[in-house]
Amino acid sequence: MSLRFAAVLAGCLLAGCSSLPPTPLPARDQIRNFALEARFALRVTLPEQPPQSSGGRLTWTHKNGNDRILVSSPLGYGLAEIETTPTLSRLRTADGQTRESTDPDALMEEVTGRRLPVTRLPAWLLGRSGGAAQIDIDDQKRPLLLREAGWRVDYAYEDETAAALPARVTLSRDGEIELRLRIEEWKDNP
Asked: What's this model's pTM, rounded to 2 decimal places?
């Protein structure tokens, strides 16, 4: 009888845990590590070639200077995994190919034909400078536009609070590349 009671009690506790509201995120300026779920659209225009577009989903975890980005098709099929640490970056594709480099930006250039600012993206997603950026803010003192190293980063919010995280981020450079992110969920990753 006591075993049955313990099982029922455990089930009730687990059900209670699953219905707890999500933990609120700390203020944007206090976030150091994060995880996010997003949809993306990427357009690359190479010289003398028609624009190339792709899209899908991504899951990004940024913790202690390390990044892990899982890229999936719109239907959720895994396409690639990108892992970066301060010393090594690795790209694994769905067909089993692996490429490595000590420079994540150079690795992305090798794959896409254009240098993508992988090392600056975690800071840019939060509206911070990855170096010496010019940042325009809105009335709530949130990042609205960031310009750095030839890149433009535009932010849009769904929440009107000053601490809100962006729901949409668009990165672009000179009409040759545009990456649009529709962030569906932010998580603090302490």
From this structure: 0.82
